[in-house]
Design brief:
Number of helices: 3
CATH topology: Rossmann fold
Number of strands: 4
Strand order of the largest sheet: 1-2-3-4
Order of helices and strands: EHEHEEH
Number of domains: 1
Strand content: 15-25%
Shape: globular
Largest sheet: 4 strands, parallel
Length: about 80
């Protein structure tokens, strides 16, 4: 694989660790305002750390939550 993307929770942990051992870049996205334990650990060696809210993790990029365009259009 060329990249491993994780969204937190216990399923993301083993995949992120395996990717690191295989020297595959890890990208994580924290969707909550409070960082979970798995994402806090994976952030230490992730190539990119993305968040839904600003100022959640130091060095993270706030990109919002990914949603379908149909759902986004309802709010307009």
């Amino acid at each position: 694989p060329s990249v491993c993307v994780g969204f937190g929770g216990y399923p993301a942990g083993p995949g992120g660790i395996a990717a690191r051992l295989m020297k595959v870049p890890v990208v994580i996205h924290e969707q909550n305002a409070v960082v979970g334990m798995t994402n806090r650990y994976l952030a230490k060696f992730s190539a990119r750390v993305l968040t839904a809210f600003p100022d959640v993790l130091d060095g993270a990029e706030c990109v919002g939550n990914p949603i379908r365009t149909e759902i986004d259009a309802v709010g307009r």
